[in-house]
Amino acid sequence: MSNYFCVNKSGITVPVYSDTQQTSKIGSIYNREAFGYDMNWGGDGYFYRILFRTSDGSLSYGILVDPPGSSVTDCTDYPFGTEEIDGTEYYTFTMRKSRTVYTAGGTRWGAVAANCRVACLSAVAGDSYPNRKGINYVESSKGGWVKVTGDGVNYGFVDTGLDVSSSYSSIPFYGSW
User: Fold this and answer.
1) Is the entire prediction scored with pTM above 0.85?
2) How confident is the model at residue 20, as a pLDDT?
3) How many CB atoms neighbour CB 107 within 10 A?
């Protein structure tokens, strides 16, 4: 089962509860805020385990309890744009800051420069790191697209910068949400 990188598009603030005590509120997901959806936990459509940025700036796991449907929206519903690369249409996202790119196995592959884009086919995020977004290509700062490869596959992961910001106005990995 895959994890997903998501955005709250409900228009409201959604409370986040402790994943051990589901009645203890530990934070909030604000409208247009990004987070990782941890599908490996076994969400059932009522409880959603997420990786989110807390008010003190740290990353923490928590639970959304019966949230409005649009509060767990795939980031690919709001890409920065689309791009046809080698005959396939990809969702693209802009990187506001330089971030590390990893192979599928978690080895450092390289980096994507600030103001360049990454391209992907879905909202899939890392199994071990829901704050790393699955990507297929990185836009070179010199122009053109570079395929992310390694570990025998043609995809990797980019650090979304969720540890830096989760707000639509400042998260390093950004679409049109």
Assistant:
1) yes
2) 82
3) 10
